[in-house]
Amino acid sequence: MVFAQKLIAWQKQHGRRSLPWQGTRDPYRIWLSEVMLQQTQVGAVIPYYERFLRRFPTVEALAAASEDEVLQLWSGMGYYARGRNLHAAAKRLAELGSFPRTAAEIEELPGIGKSTAAAIAAFAFGERAAILDGNVKRVLARYCGIPGWPGEKSVETALWERANRLLPKTGIETYTQALMDLGATVCVRTPKCEACPVSRACVARKESKTAEIPAPRPRKALPQKAVTWLLLLDRGQILLEKRPAPGIWGGLWSFPEAPAKDVDGHCRRSFGCQVRSTKILEALEHGFTHFRLRIHPLLCQVARTPNAQSPGSLWVDIDEVSEAAVPAPVRTLVGRLNVA
């Protein structure tokens, strides 16, 4: 295939070859990198990847860890379901005793989709399998002239058909990496067509449609949600509550949410605390894929009643909060408290 041959030749000369997860056949390391690279830029992933491997050098080490330990290392990278699924899959792998060798088997693990499974199988075991992550969708949509938003089922089906048809018979690892690198460094939102090895045959370039293909996600006004967070302080400690999974920040420790009315009664009933004073702090906004969250923090100086216990909650020294598995807004608010 001319397309594949040109990409393989380009990769050997211009592709990325110094990323920390390259140059290995270890399926654990490849899997970890592929999961981390979902929804996250390479530059942001590298330090997380390296820290993760220092703490969990093997699947067995990851499987033996607690969910809190895993999410603590994941904290700040977002999309926390990835971390929970990674941990669940590690436990499954520890039970199996070996890593599955085919894309179809790998896809059965928690949190691993068709494209990620194919990438792991190609890099670790040399399986001839097609990938179709976001960058690759953009490359193939432009090269083949497939209009529409890649999230639409009909468009995605057409892209999978092309992805499978263009697979080379040999050199699958280099070809797969080339597709990823081309989409990440050349065929970007504003493409660098002069640097592309397949630009002469690219339909979007020939028809001057690189700005139109692929079509962007249809825009929708993001709904706004608002919550009140209670920052309960008592003698240098602050209360954290474990969030339920699934859900936003599932499994992480966060500040308790509360109804805006009857804060005193809520604290007494739910946490065994007597509110001494309250202070409204500056609101904080946090964006998710499908909505925006406006957080209204309420700082409460409280006194705990003797033997007060609340299931799923934990009193932590303020200076230790940032070391726990907490979402970014919690870190931000604690930072404000430490500065104030």
Question: Any overview of this molecule?
Answer:
The chain is an alpha+beta fold. The chain folds into two domains: 2-206, Endonuclease III, domain 1 (Orthogonal Bundle), CATH 1.10.340.30; 224-339, Nucleoside Triphosphate Pyrophosphohydrolase (Alpha-Beta Complex), CATH 3.90.79.10. Helices cover 43% and strands 15% of the residues. The protein has 14 helices and eight strands. Helix 2 crosses helix 3 and helix 9 (134-144) crosses helix 10 (153-165). The protein is elongated and about 75 Å long. The protein starts with a helix and ends with a helix. The model has no long low-confidence stretch (mean pLDDT 93).
- Do you know the CATH topology of the largest domain? Endonuclease III, domain 1
Query: End-to-end span in angstroms?
Result: 63 Å
- The residue fraction in helices comes out at 40-55%
Annotation, overall tally of beta strands: 8
What attributes does this structure have?
Nucleoside Triphosphate Pyrophosphohydrolase, elongated, 8-stranded mixed beta sheet, Endonuclease III, domain 1, 340 residues, 8 strands, 14 helices, alpha+beta
What's the gist of this structure?
With 340 residues, the chain is α+β, with helices and mostly antiparallel strands. It is 43% helix and 15% strand. The protein folds into 2 domains: 2-206, Endonuclease III, domain 1 (Orthogonal Bundle); 224-339, Nucleoside Triphosphate Pyrophosphohydrolase (Alpha-Beta Complex).
